[in-house]
Amino acid sequence: MSDQNLKLLLALRQWGDVQQLNAIFGPGNENGIEIVTWTQDGSRIFSDATSLDADIVLIDPTLPAFEANDIQRLYHHETKPIVTLGAIPPQGDWGSRLYQLGIKGHVNLPIGEAQARALVAMGHKAVQDALRERASPSYIPQVSTQVAQIIATHGWEKSMVAVWAAKGGVGKSTISENLAAVLGVIANRNTVLIDANMAGGNTHIHLGFPESVIAKNIAALARRYQMNLSTQGYRSAGNVGMLSAQSVLSPSEVQGHLTPFRNNLRVLIGLPKQFMGGDEYFQGELGRGYMHELLAVVASMADFVVMDLGQDTNAAVHLQALRDANYVFVVINPDAASVRATGEVMETLFKHVQLDAKKFRLVVNRFHPEHGIARKDIVNALQMPEVGVVPDGGPKVTASLNRGYPLVIDSRGEIARAIVSIASTLYPPVSQVWAHRGKLGGEKSEGLGKKLTDLVFGA
Ligand SMILES: Nc1ncnc2c1ncn2[C@@H]1O[C@H](COP(=O)(O)OP(=O)(O)OP(=O)(O)O)[C@@H](O)[C@H]1O
Ligand SMILES: [Mg+2]
Fold first, then answer.
1. How far is the CA of 198 from the centre of ligand 2 (A)?
2. Is 172 domain-assigned?
3. Same domain flag for 180 and 282
4. What is the distance between the alpha carbons of residues 439 and 264, in angstroms, rounded to a whole number?
5. Residue 147: what pLDDT?
6. What's the confidence (pLDDT) of residue 241?
7. Where are the beta strands (DSSP E) in 47-164?
8. Among 56, 133, 194, 379, whose Cα sits 20 to 30 Å from the Cα of 358?
9. Amino acid 3: pLDDT
10. Whose CA is nearest to atom 23 of ligand 1?
């Protein structure tokens, strides 16, 4: 078998399909792809593909003992990516499920000659794309078994973090989006980012979500909460028994309002219009109840919850989030006005609302040694431990917000490092993942992709 040929593993049920494929991909064919083996046992796919050095796997998902996770494991296989194509059975809704799991193309079963021929171009393209992605600086490998073991031995706890500031425009969104991306994308922990800024959300813009998903936002879920509350009241008034003890929002309702970003990060999109913060379901008891219940449900389904909160402590939603969070990261800029404003707001906050001061941490953003204000003075003035210092990155930080994904995804610079360090206070193993990622990722890559990255992030 020629070394230049791509190697194809067939994981199919029917001999008829295999015969069709053999006519195109059999020994000595001219199509640049050769079949290495055929299996009907789903549990063999991963070991066969890796030991036979396959490049492409064609999978019928109804094969006995097929493991859905194998698609990702193969794709992120350390020695090289192994792409999966789907062989979609006529019955059932397999197509969309398989694409969610990561297949890179498909043919329909049963396989006729045209289907088999279509696989030639599809297979080559999928492998090329996978190799290109692996070589790019934004490639995020899954952790190896060795790293996974390190992770398993480190202690960490699920947690909910509110990112808050006493002032607008200091970097709450930048910090919360990047922090969520470190936890959910790089560390691959199940993470939910909630854009709860009642002065208007912006994560959907920063994360480049299409217009079509923006209607599924924190206000739509609040309306659902309000509606459920009224029907539940109605039902329990009708003496249906235990219904009043039931929660008002179900996990599937919450899940249905989350938008997947990448890997393990999902987002509850914020208010697309600023005035919506004044809507009745965000006010008073109703707003507090909604936020409390939302956080309880999200916490039950995620390892980490990161909230982007607006500065207004009169907003019921913000206050409730500050109460329920395990940690509050207070973002400040290193200027005297920002420190003073923060001190004053904190003082009134603690006077009027019972909040555990021990869970507050300081994040100094846009720090520059020449600003003439020392970190220890900020810490002393505000009497909060410091959890991180993020340097001022100049215009490239704003550029990263404009291009539609957080900078930590593909930057190895100082800002990314600072945010990984903040994330490691919640999830220590992320430091290892980050170090490991440097070795596996495309740091060595050259060419256009590298030049563009240099333009955005500096060499
Ligand atoms: N470390 C940094 N270095 C350079 N620029 C930064 C840094 N952090 C944030 N910025 C820039 O500051 C501006 C405000 O940041 P961001 O939107 O994150 O603040 P915010 O507190 O969420 O604002 P708002 O109160 O309007 O929601 C953005 O243009 C962002 O690019
Ligand atoms: Mg913001």
1. 10
2. yes
3. yes
4. 22
5. 62
6. 42
7. 56-59, 83-88, 106-108, 159-164
8. 194
9. 60
10. 169
| Contact of 216 with 259, CB cutoff 8 Å | yes
The counts of H helices and E strands in the chain are 18, 13
Contact criterion met (CB below 8 Å) for 433 and 142: no
Are 267 and 214 within one domain? yes
pLDDT at 439: 52
Find the helix or strand (DSSP H, E) in which 15 lies: helix 15-25
pLDDT of residue 133: 86
Torsion of CA 211, 213, 217, 219, to 10 degrees: 70
What pLDDT is attached to residue 459?
34
Q: Which domain holds residue 403?
A: 145-457
- Total domain count, the chain: 2
Residues of the chain with pLDDT under 50: 1, 237-244, 440-459
The reply to whether 41 falls in a domain is yes
Q: Does the Cβ of 104 fall within 6 Å of ligand 1?
A: no
Q: What CATH number is given to the structural domain containing 84?
A: 3.40.50.2300
| pTM listed for this prediction | 0.70
Q: How high is the pLDDT of residue 210?
A: 94
Residue 140 domain flag: no
Which residues, by Cβ under 5 Å, contact ligand 2, an ion? 172-173
On whether residue 447 sits in a domain, the answer given is yes
CATH of the domain at 262: 3.40.50.300
277 and 386 within one domain:
yes
How much is the pLDDT for 448?
A: 38
- Give me ligand 1 centre to Cα 63, in Å: 50
Return the ligand 1 atom nearest residue 168 CA: 25
In three-state secondary structure terms, 164 is strand
Does residue 17 share a domain with residue 89?
yes
Residue whose CA lies nearest to ligand 1 atom number 8:
171
If you measure from the C-alpha of residue 293 to the centroid of ligand 1, how many angstroms do you get, rounded to a whole number? Answer: 29
